[in-house]
Amino acid sequence: DTAVSQTPKYLVTQMGNDKSIKCEQNLGHDTMYWYKQDSKKFLKIMFSYNNKELIINETVPNRFSPKSPDKAHLNLHINSLELGDSAVYFCASSIQGGGQPQHFGDGTRLSIL
Amino acid sequence: AQSVTQLGSHVSVSEGALVLLRCNYSSSVPPYLFWYVQYPNQGLQLLLKYTSAATLVKGINGFEAEFKKSETSFHLTKPSAHMSDAAEYFCAARGSVGALTFGSGTRLQVQP
Q1: Of A40, A99, A105, which has the smallest distance from its Cβ to B94's Cβ?
Q2: Which residue in B41, B98, B104 is closest to A42 by CB distance?
Q3: Cα→Cα distances B43→A17, A104, B97, Å
Q4: Which residue numbers of A have CB closer than 8 Å to B's CBs?
Q5: Which of A18, A92, B73, B86 has its CB 3.0 to 4.6 Å from that of A33, i.e. a possible disulfide?
Q6: Counting runs of H as helices and runs of E as strands, what totals does chain A give?
Q7: CB atoms within 10 A of CB B106
Q8: pLDDT tens per residue, range A22-35
C-alpha cells in the first residue's frame, strides 16, 4: 500500500493556466507538508498543515493555495502558472512533534511550456 | 535560523570502498537530524534519524551516522559501497514547527 500518494506524477501545461496537485496519506499522520525541489535539487518547505490548520506558510506567491479537507489530504492549487513554477513538488506527512520523520510521496513534476 | 551544509555536491567512490558524506548543521538547540536518499524520479526515503537517544545511529542499507555536537556534524558513512547506493543524499534538520531544512544534497556515484 502506498503511504503518501500524489497525483498526477507528471503535469505539463501552458503558462497562465491553473492546475491542482492532490496528496493523500494513509499513515494516520496529523501533519502534512508541501516542498518544492528546484532544478538544482534544492528542497524548500512551502506549506504545512496540522489537523487541517495551516501552521507554516513560507514566502510563496499567493498564486499558490493549499487546501486540507481532512487530516489525510492536502492539495495544492496553483493559479496563473509561470515558467519559474517548473519544479518537482513533494508532499510529505508526519506525526507532529519530537523527532518524528517525514514520509514523502514520489513527487509531481510540473513543466510549464 | 537553522541551516544545514553538505560539503561536496558530488562524491565518487569505487564499489567496495568507504562512503563518507558530510553534513554540518547550525542550531542553538539540540536538533533532530535526518538523512534521506533520493533515487532518480522518486521521492525521498528515510535512511536514518538522530533524536538524541544515541550519538551513533544505524540506518537502512548498511548506512550509519555519528552525531558530534562539538563539531556540529552528522556525517553519513557506509563501510563498503554498492552499485545500488548511487543516488542523491540529503541531510536535513527539523525546525521548531516541524518543517525540514535541507542541505543542498550530495550525488553519490559508485564506480565498478
Answers
A1: A99
A2: B104
A3: 26, 6, 22
A4: 4, 31, 33, 35, 40-45, 48, 50, 55-56, 90, 92, 94, 96-99, 101-107, 109
A5: A92
A6: 0, 11
A7: 21
A8: 999 999 999 999 99
